[in-house]
Sequence to fold (153 residues):
Amino acid sequence: MKTSSSLIYISCALAFAVAAAGCRTAAPAARRAGADFDPCAERLHDTCGRFLLYYSINGRLPDTLDELKRVDAQTVTPLVCPISGKPYVYSKDGPRPPGRAGRLVLYDAEPVHCGMRWGILADVAAEGRPPTLRVILVPETPVFAAEKQKKAG
Fold:
């Protein structure tokens, strides 16, 4: 009886090995920029915490990034894109991405992430409630094309 169970085990293992040898995995697809591996997105995510801390103390978003920097001296997340090396753009009344509630309050100065920009979308809730902050990847058009037209006109 012991020999037959060993034969069954060996037969199953051999059948599995033959089947696996015929299987091939597809080449990995090119990865799109995503928050799970982009240092810029992670930096902006850390900055969301500073915004929420500032909001909890002052009941509003800061007028300038200098105000935000002073709120938490222990956390010194550089407010520059690690890819371009340029400082993030801040405006508490920033552009509105189409189809999204809220405004981009902090975002990349240039579209250096696969032709897009990372940014923090702030949706300010009802009075007395903190805003909802999300890190999102924003296409250059139509959001920033409209901003460029405003500055030019």
In short: The beta strands are 89-90, 103-107, 116-123, 132-139. The first strand starts at residue 89 and ends at 90. The chain has four helices and four strands. Residues 2-22 form the longest helix (21 residues).
